[in-house]
Amino acid sequence: MRHSRLLIATALTMIPAAAAAEEGMWTFDNFPIAAANRDLGTSIDQKWLDKVRLASVRIGGASGGLVSPDGLVLTNEHVASGCVEDLSTPERNYVQTGFTPQSRAEERKCPGTVAEVLTAITDVTARMQAAGAGLSGEAFTRARSAEAGKIEAEACGADKSRRCQVVTLYRGGQFKLYTYRRYTDVRLAFAPEHRAAAFGGDLDNFAFPRFAVDAAFLRLYENGQPVKTPGYLRWNAAPPQENQPVFVSGSPGATQRLLTQAQLRTVQDVTLPLEQLINSELRGRLLQFAAQNEQNAFVAGQAISGIENTYKRGFGRQQSLIDQRFMAGRAKAEAEFRARVAADAALRQLIGDPWTELANLQPEVARLYPGYYMLEGRAGGGSQLYNWAEDLVRGAIEKTKPSGERLPEYGDARLAAVENGLLATRPTYPALDEVQLAWWLSKTREILTVDDPRIAQVLGKESPEGLAARLARGTKLGDPAVRKALWDGGLPAIKASTDPLIQFLLRIQDVTRATRTEYEAKVQAPTDRASEALAKARFAVFGTSLYPDATGTLRLTYGRLRGWTYQGRVIPYATTFGGLWQRATGAEPFDVAPRLLAAKDRIPASTILDVAASTDTIGGSSGSPAINAKGEIIGANFDSTVLTQRNAYGYDPELNRSVLVTTTAITAALRHAYGQSHLLAELGVR
Fold first, then answer.
1. For residue 643, how many other CB atoms are within 10 A of its CB?
2. Which first-to-last residue range defines the signal peptide (predicted)?
């Protein structure tokens, strides 16, 4: 496959065209070693890849990297922020003060946090494709889900120290079994003040230059002791250099580069506008709630940060979809691909016309997506109490069935993960849940309309606000002992429960499950079948040297540390602490974190703080270790730019930039601002 740089208009591909240099979120079993070495002038090999894979850590929906022989993991503060908030109280607020223990004995367990290391990748394509052969609709999705559950159970069994997941790649072209080593005792080892990690707030979010120390350390424990991790990434605190090669290893969430133009028009006209509409209102409600008093501001902080990220990411994607040059590049790539297929009679007969099949399916997507999104995808509005209730009710129902007949998320191989999150001891804030539930119920009624029969089943005779108040204020699910009793008691305990939230979830199961079933049968199943045919065409035309869409699984991307030029403005590759001091105004959001500001005279102004890299990353890559050609860690990915949000649909080599916090900056902060000498010693820094 060619890796030469293409013109911008053709580099914005949907893959299948050849990838530009530095493009691609590559799986570790198909990484283009030779091409990367040629493009970067490096000499990495399979041994290097294996080491990086085993030192890469998945943390929920984000990433991290092992940096010591004793299970120490570098990630972002915003990745660890949920743990920081869970461990905080209004009286001892680590979000404001930072969490700075002076020894390992003071490290504290993060409730519900799970860390995973990918240990093996096995091809199971033949089994998965055979399972769905000749089937359609609901039968197709059930057969595929059952086979995936069977494969996962065969590989991991009841071993809670491992997790097995069948991963769909190339939208049905391949299926791989990913086996992870799981760690459920994850402890917070260090986090700066949130203001140090989020300097500039929403104004600087998805932007560069950036001036953020968005770094935190977690530690993996097992049997009460730190896990031994001899294959860690060594810490390199030297200042990074412009054009320096860099590799980023993490778990990017999802891309849609393999969508057809017809599918992408649905994203542009239906799905993304709906998501942006409701996200904007939720953001407003949360801000209004937080403004009422200090307690509300404390409990809503993480939810606000999350929704602001989601909204701004969506805004960047909307901008790419109305960029005529960008869309023309995608259209050209698809036309060229279709012409290649049309020229091969045998291939054309094998795959049929999946483009037309997908185009004809889009009106059904537009019809069914709003209900599916509101009643399944965004059900509960982010309420933790609702999520627990849903797992309790659905888990109880599904556990009465054979594993292969359940909803996939409740198969035997996945129950340990559900149970871990469900039984974690973490604080709850019913006032916040009430806001989230009221927003969800009111927006669901608005989007589906009052006359949709599902609304009467969900709301009954209550108003969204009244129902939300009754559920949030009356539930006892904030007590982990109550949740455990219900989980252990199974369906009889659930049915006997008088908890209003449990009873509500029981009441709406027919509605939500029917909505999900219809969407999977009429949209997901035919989409999967047509996408599988497209994947066969890609492999036939372009071979196997292609990278798949991101799926939340471990990927490796490469590039260089460098800036760019946009609309005549030259953006340098790096920022410094001196730039931070200059940008600071003393007023929010440009007020420097107190402990960092107190170290101003001790941190040289020339110390490099953040850098931009041409690596191919997206949401989920947060916390990913940035690694040099020697296999040393030089930073952690924590953001990208608004322009880079088009990365969901295609890679632009001139504009695509990841944003990294450097080990140079983290070292300076640990030493001069936070007094973390024990961590510096562990990292091998003198």
1. 21
2. 1-20
131 within a domain of the structure (yes/no): no
User: Based on the domain organization, do 533 and 677 belong to the same domain?
Assistant: no
Does residue 572 sit in the same domain as residue 435?
Answer: no
Please state, in angstroms and rounded to a whole number, the distance separating the CA atoms of residues 1 and 195: 45
For residues 599 and 192, give the distance between their C-alpha atoms in angstroms, rounded to a whole number: 13
Q: Which domain holds residue 236?
A: 8-114+184-256+548-682
Q: From CA 404, how far away is CA 121, in angstroms rounded?
A: 22
SS3 607: coil
Return averaged pLDDT per consecutive 10 residues of the chain, 686 residues in all: 27 46 92 96 98 97 97 97 93 95 97 96 97 92 92 92 95 95 97 97 92 98 97 98 98 94 96 95 96 94 90 91 90 95 95 97 98 97 97 97 91 89 93 98 97 96 97 98 98 98 98 97 96 92 86 97 92 97 96 97 98 94 97 97 89 90 98 98 95
Distance CA 480, CA 485 (A): 9
How many CB atoms are located within 10 Å of the residue 285 CB? Answer: 18
618 token code pair? 């997206």
End residue of a domain, out of 540, 570, 585? 540
572/531 same-domain check: no
- Of the residues 510, 540, 570, the one at which a domain ends: 540
CA distances from 307 to 303, 312, 565 (A): 6, 9, 29
Crossing angle of helices 125-132 and 137-156, in 10° steps, is 150
Q: How many domains does the chain have?
A: 2
Phi-psi group of 201: left, alpha or beta (phi > 0 → left; psi -120 to 50 → alpha; rest → beta): left
Query: What φ, ψ does residue 163 adopt, rounded to 5°?
Result: -135, 130
How many C-beta atoms surround the C-beta of residue 352 within 10 A?
Answer: 13
Three-state SS at 336: helix
Quote the CA–CA distance of 300 and 292 in Å, as a whole number: 11
Structure tokens that stand for 455 in this block: 């609304």
Other Cβ atoms within 10 Å of 503 Cβ, number: 18
Tell whether 145 is covered by a domain. no
Q: Are residues 252 and 265 in the same domain?
A: no
The burial class, CB within 10 Å (0-12 / 13-18 / 19+), for 18 is middle
Q: Are 180 and 116 in contact (CB under 8 A)?
A: yes
Q: Report the CATH number that the domain containing residue 239 is assigned in CATH.
A: 2.40.10.120
Structure tokens that stand for 594 in this block:
């107190």
| Count of all residues that appear for the chain in the document | 686
Q: Considering Cα of 82, then 300, then 293, then 205, what sign does the dihedral take?
A: positive
Contact 404, 149 (CB under 8 A): yes
Q: Name the CA radius of gyration of the chain, rounded.
A: 25
Q: Are strands 174-183 and 115-123 parallel, antiparallel or unpaired?
A: antiparallel
For residue 308, which of 444, 163, 200, 190 has the smallest C-alpha distance? 200
Same domain for 409 and 297: yes
